[in-house]
Amino acid sequence: MSIFHLTRRTIIAAAIATAALAGAAVAHDFKAGSLQIDHPWSRATPGGATVAGGYLVVKNTGTAPDRLVAATAPFAGRVEIHEMSMKDGVMVMRPLPDGLAIPAGGSLELKPGGYHIMFLDLKAPLKEGTLVDGTLTFEKAGTVPVQFKVEGMGAQGGGAHSSH
Fold first, then answer.
1. Assign residue 130 a region: left if phi > 0, alpha if psi is -120 to 50, beta otherwise?
2. In CATH, which superfamily holds the domain spanning 29-155?
3. Which of 52, 53, 59, 137 could form a disulfide with 107 if both were Cys (CB 3.0 to 4.6 A apart)?
4. Where are the domains of the chain?
5. Residue-wise DSSP of 101-116
């Protein structure tokens, strides 16, 4: 076998390994019992912004319902679970102190314009391309550390998942 063939094989093997590692890096999911938390994300914020939203999907593969009851984030003074809805032609946002149900065998989607996590009293702007720490607390599954990927200011669907 010639050096050319060995070098070519080495390059191909390195490319395959790099692609596999990149796929693992893009996978941005967390697990808590029967709950799968898919790609938590937020939008970058301009300097001086005091609020941001957090978005994700929670899939419940179990046979019992659960409930998202709280969230925390060290980069925010307060964190609340919110709902946005239309009322008399006006978009209204309100906190949901009892959290959100995740049905058995179902899922819960937090997205712009709907259910979301509200980060209030931001301590610093959220910068695109960074990961910021947070926790989600579920009634049955308990508290789960997660990282929110900060997408661009105009992001609509959470980066890696928007192409699905």
1. beta
2. PCu(A)C copper chaperone (2.60.40.1890)
3. 59
4. 29-155
5. EE-TT-EEEE-TTSSE
Pairing outcome for strands 51-60 and 66-72: unpaired
In angstroms, what CA-CA distances link 152 with 13, 15, 44, 119, 135? 33, 28, 5, 17, 22
**Total-model pTM:** 0.79
Residues whose CB falls within 8 Å of the CB of residue 140, separated by 6 or more in sequence, listed in order: 33, 64, 66, 67
**Would you write out the chain's pLDDT as a tens digit for each of its 164 residues?**
554 444 555 444 444 444 444 443 445 899 999 999 999 999 999 999 999 999 999 999 999 999 999 999 999 999 999 999 888 999 899 999 999 999 999 999 999 999 999 999 999 999 999 999 999 999 999 999 999 999 998 887 644 444 33
Residues near 155 by beta carbon (within 8 Å), at least 6 away in sequence: 41, 43, 162
